[in-house]
Design goal:
homotetramer, alpha/beta, Rossmann fold, Dihydrodipicolinate Reductase, domain 2, 2 domains, 9 helices, 17 strands, binds 1,4-dihydronicotinamide adenine dinucleotide, oxidoreductase (chains A, B, C, D), Gfo/Idh/MocA_oxidrdct_glycsds (chains A, B, C, D), Gfo/Idh/MocA family protein (chains A, B, C, D), Gfo/Idh/MocA-like_OxRdtase_N (chains A, B, C, D), NAD(P)-bd_dom_sf (chains A, B, C, D)
């Protein structure tokens, strides 16, 4: 406990920026007691009320409107970048150049070229931690399945991943950065990036992408009159409609070096599915599934029980699973947890890395984020013909 | 009721042949009372004990071992062909030539060429009904969803279909006709044919298939010592192992003339899934799903209820749904029914067609079965490049 | 197979009478082949169109309007009595006196005194089978659980039973025999009789009933203008409303000789629950549940799997469970079945008993039906004070 | 924001004490921004390592082993009492006498007499807030249902409550305060107190309790060798076994002034149920349910949707439900939350009451806790005869 405390800041106080701010606030309350509570230095958002709210709410000393104030601050050791994808590169490069540890949100950048530049910037700052926010790698249930895949279930042979959201379903919802950019910058980049990463978490390296098919169902959206946060159900809109530039739906198949095959279906216009990330893993010795709508459980089936009493088991996460013991104040099974907790565990891993503690698996680094973009690029190319990686 | 009764027979008394035999026995007990009970003439199976059991059990007058005895019998007016796919053409042609009405199991044939010949044979027998056994088109729940797609839900924009079985999971299960034939004759033909058909039931004509990826996980199987029926868990096997010739897993994406896109994942080696045909339909005004593991229900979500109390509804099939009123002796919701009932409804539709009654939608004809094979052929070709239909 | 075939008839062609008629039609198609198909002699119903429909539909030779025509017919060997409870005694006594085997619906009678008389009548006809229709004892899933309770799960310690229906929810539904009679003749007799019986199926003899609380929520109903069948959603009603005489809701607790305790909640006015019979069994070594809304599955949890992958298993009924192998034409897991099938299995057991075949567990006899009424009587008395049996 | 910050402390750093400590840490991060972050003064636990861990983890300035150090501290304005029930009275009386605001855990005390004394102590300190920890009243889902009961669903007619835990299932788990005391001090006091309170939250005042039946299935337990926390799966035990003094299972029925009836089943030995609090509410115009194993959702059914597409809806909690908007960092539906969050909302309500803010419903006071004990006392008495309240 004699370690110096780490000064942290968050750039972007929109939907996910709040989760980062809360995560730093609570990162030292989970797991082992070794980490000093980080110093909560500042939150920055172009829109001052968002920065002010998040700073006041989560106990950060300052609210800023210019991210450079954070990059320039000597009090800040580590920074989360939680703004639209198009801003990731510039801020990351500046923060790394200023000597900060950087946790940048996914997808790492809008293009492979940008991501490549970010990886080079990280390589030029070898003493600093560079990380990308594949938060689902911090899910207790997903890690519980991972343990089984590396154990009794054995390797994945067939991976089926759906990520269905409804944030874009309503054509009355305002235009935002999420709807701008070329093919692949839509649902694929926004939520497909998570699913592509999870597939590799379980199956290893992607070697082929095939059959990509995309559709845009809502072709224009109203211009917002105020600042739209997240999926922006509440902002006022004008009568003017702006064209949507990227895909609402995307589906494709994949192959892995392990021999596994994958099926992906992505949608941001799936009525009734607020945030359904569902994966089904068919393994050598059984089957497992996870559905984000019930984040604290998973299912598994294997040949253990006798046939007459065998079936898919619903397992609730308990203290014997990864990230649960002391990861929640009360930590028994069925107590419940959710996506916001994954951000706390991610923040803890990032801070531990900075502090040189190696108990938790480290966050994926920017090279990993670059790899993810290469797979996404392959997905876009696979519209015409199978692509090999 | 002054109509003459129809003489019926079943060729093949394996897994699905029994369902046909039972279906004829009970076809006149469902729905309206107009149809005279058919005369249950004969069941044929190469393996005599199967023929004898089915005939005795379901009340057919004769058991035969040679299917020609059925084709040649003047007492038989209509015949179900429920044998391995490779035998469909020869028997269908002979039966049609002999003046019989024919209900042939799916997939119609092992190849487009065979199916084309069968369609020609049917065309040459214009007074006879020719039908193919896409049984799921008789599911009350699937038809309940169809009504909504044609009504309040509106057109399907994204179709996601899984058909996951475990019949091939155990490498100790014996070799059978299901594991022989070239690429596409495996899980794609066996259960994928159903799913491809259901997708068209909801989305209309397929115009593109992309990204087909296949895998064979169990590469050889033991030679059976007795006659293996269905998925043959119970037959004795020899030490000798025979190569599996076709795919266990198959995944691909599709496009429809309507603009809809589709995602397919098929497996016959999915531990824990006896028979999981699951479809998710994302429509213009909502979402609906069906899962064959709970055959008497479906789910639906739309914008009807107020947001604070809205969510996916689990609907149990009741007498106000298609095929339920008088389709079961007690017919209230949650009373339960299953796949065997779909065969009864299919038999009833086939017999009604023969009798000239037009209350029920007719069975898909062999031209439809041919079309289905053309899509399957496209799926096989789409391994290398997108295929347009 | 040289046995003479049994002549069967059904008295009452209402909701459940149809299930009996269909059951006799198909009883010889299930399980072993020993039983000759019964002769389908006659169906009787006071309302001629119901008798005619059921006879024509299920293939019975004659339709009658007077049940005495059945009792008097020398062609009839066995009869199902499927009319309102108040008629059970008179018809049973007459049928037994006429030398018939009798399967009478539950509850055996409206009163213990009536049931006692019926048991005496049965005792006076020792060569005839007397049976009562506790159909859920024929459910494959319930029997699968029973096997475990007698095996690995061990004795039940706590039984929780809900039976929630909505047939009485709508105050616009017509008056019928179900709403007439004193306290206990309502939801308790109608569906509670099943649940009380199932509790004893699992826990053994009831020794105490406590805390009975009843409520009538719909206090009058419109007089029907036509003949109301079953729950009668479709019959026209008059403006005149008739008082409901018995309870809509009933709840109580129980004790068993084994030391087990029970919790019961019954309702016929439970919106959204067409027919939810749910039981939860807490046993010495684990837990099991059954819910009639998904009749072909059950759940179980025990200490078999390792803690990190343990949870409640959803088991789909397959051919290795009781009553499934050859109990359905296609009989693999998830194929689906329902309550109508339970009646087929019950009819088979009844006919086997008549034929002297002892493969299946026999139907509960009228003495058992009398015992059930004694427990129901105790439930009614336990409004004031605990009752010991 | 010019309000002085409130000094808070927690007495008892066992299972639930941690949840209180975390709750104070985060209470000002939720909902509106008006509340200054409370000063985290101290955590006390007889077992020093527990106090030290909780203080360090959640950022409290001091760890104490004697609760009097907290009661005596001028820095402390408000205190949570989170120790065994037998200690509630003494600590509450001392804390109130010392001028503290008190939030005491449920059940308020081991007896009505103790609770009465506490209420008197609270009455003697009129300027101080007295509260009891019925945390489920802070569940978003439960409050979402409450809104409907007061709105479209209408009054509850039949309440069915199960609370099934497995913490006592394993006879190898150590003796603790939970297993000591007379009848009613077992599962009834421990978890039944919550369910009795929730029933009144929905149905209003209890006027009758009937038919109480109790059972103790694990009659002795090993003496722990270390300090056992919560359900104490991890502490070492001696060979010596100590008698269990109270009930494992408890079931009874209830009546409410509104005319509603209730069914209760409680167990702490229910294998496979870590913490299943399930309520089913049958209301005038529909049905709703909540199950704590999925804390962020509820189900509802009403006559809104057309019959053919009607069924039970699964509603995921979103920002339009009580306590969700800004109650979580990311607050969209399916993001997930759990029991620990309920404690944060409870702490916020308690602190708001102290600060004179009236936005949230206040915590139930000790008079309410006393009333709860009176109902529990009636439950115990209703073993012999119905009890009226
Ligand atoms: N890991 C995960 O599960 C999630 C990751 N994300 C990622 O996080 C990032 C942000 O997404 P959301 O929070 O949903 O977006 P958002 O639109 O809700 O918030 C972005 C915020 O950035 C602010 N901003 C814009 N320009 C700025 C600038 N120059 N300087 C400072 N602030 C600026 C905006 O005012 C806004 O408040 C994206 O990269 C997204 O892909 C988003 C949601 C979940
Ligand atoms: N519509 C549906 O849901 C289903 C359709 N099917 C289709 O039904 C057909 C049969 O499949 P299964 O019943 O599963 O096969 P199976 O292998 O269980 O049964 C085939 C039967 O045909 C008999 N047979 C073989 N050669 C014969 C001959 N020359 N003459 C007479 N009988 C002969 C065999 O002895 C065997 O009993 C296939 O086309 C299959 O694709 C199968 C299952 C379900
Ligand atoms: N085992 C089970 O799961 C079930 C058992 N039941 C029992 O079956 C019996 C009948 O119930 P439902 O079929 O629901 O009643 P229902 O009211 O639908 O049918 C009764 C039929 O009896 C006819 N009937 C009335 N008086 C008659 C007479 N004197 N002679 C001949 N027919 C006469 C009526 O016209 C009517 O069609 C009851 O005892 C009930 O408790 C009912 C439903 C399910
Ligand atoms: N609202 C809710 O959902 C819940 C409420 N509870 C209630 O909270 C209370 C505590 O329960 P648990 O935390 O489960 O018990 P626990 O046994 O886990 O913790 C009690 C703690 O009190 C400490 N302690 C004992 N004597 C003390 C003393 N004289 N001074 C200071 N500390 C002392 C013990 O060392 C132990 O750490 C009980 O009243 C229980 O009914 C418990 C669980 C959930």
């Amino acid at each position: 406990m004699s370690q110096p405390s780490i000064g942290v800041a968050v750039i972007g106080a929109g939907m996910v920026g709040r989760a980062h701010a809360n995560a730093y606030r609570n990162a030292a309350t989970v797991f082992g007691l070794g980490l000093p509570a980080p110093r909560l230095v500042a939150v920055a958002d172009l829109h001052e009320p968002f920065a002010a709210d998040a700073a006041a709410r989560y106990g950060f000393a300052r609210a800023e409107t210019d991210w450079r104030a954070i990059v320039d601050s000597p009090e800040v050791d580590a920074v989360s970048i939680a703004v639209a994808n198009g801003l990731h590169r510039e801020i990351t490069e500046a923060a790394l150049a200023a000597g900060k540890h950087v946790l940048c949100e996914k997808p790492l950048a809008p293009s492979v070229a940008d991501a490549q530049a970010m990886v080079e910037a990280a390589a030029a700052a070898p003493g600093q931690v560079d990380a990308v926010g594949f938060t689902f790698r911090r899910s207790p249930a997903i890690n519980a399945i991972k343990q089984q895949v590396e154990g009794a279930l054995g390797p994945v042979r067939h991976f089926v991943g759906n990520y269905w959201c409804d944030y874009g379903y309503d054509p009355g919802r305002p235009m935002s950065w999420r709807y701008l950019g070329g093919p692949g910058s839509g649902v694929l980049a926004d939520i497909g990036s998570h699913l592509v990463d999870l597939a590799e978490f379980f199956c290893g390296a992607t070697v082929g992408v095939q059959g990509t098919t995309m559709a845009t169902l809502v072709t224009d959206r109203p211009r917002p009159l105020g600042v739209a946060m997240g999926h922006a159900g509440d902002v006022q809109v004008s009568d003017e409609r702006v064209p949507v530039e990227n895909e609402d739906v995307c589906t494709f198949t994949t192959s892995y070096a392990s021999g596994a095959v994958g099926t992906f279906s992505l949608s941001r216009v799936a009525f009734g599915h607020a945030n359904t990330l569902r994966i089904d893993l068919f393994c050598e010795n059984g089957t497992a599934s996870f559905d984000l709508t019930r984040p604290a459980e998973f299912t598994i089936a294997d040949a253990g029980p006798a046939t007459a009493v065998n079936g898919v088991r619903t397992v609730f996460i308990g203290p014997w699973h990864p990230y649960v013991a002391r990861g929640l104040p009360m930590d028994f099974p069925t107590v419940g947890h959710g996506q916001n907790d994954f951000f706390v565990y991610q923040a803890r891993a990032f801070l531990d890395q900075i502090a040189g503690v190696t108990t938790l698996p480290p966050c994926p680094d920017m090279a990993h984020g670059l790899h993810n973009l290469r797979v996404l690029e392959a997905v876009v190319s696979a519209t015409d013909k199978p692509v090999q990686l």
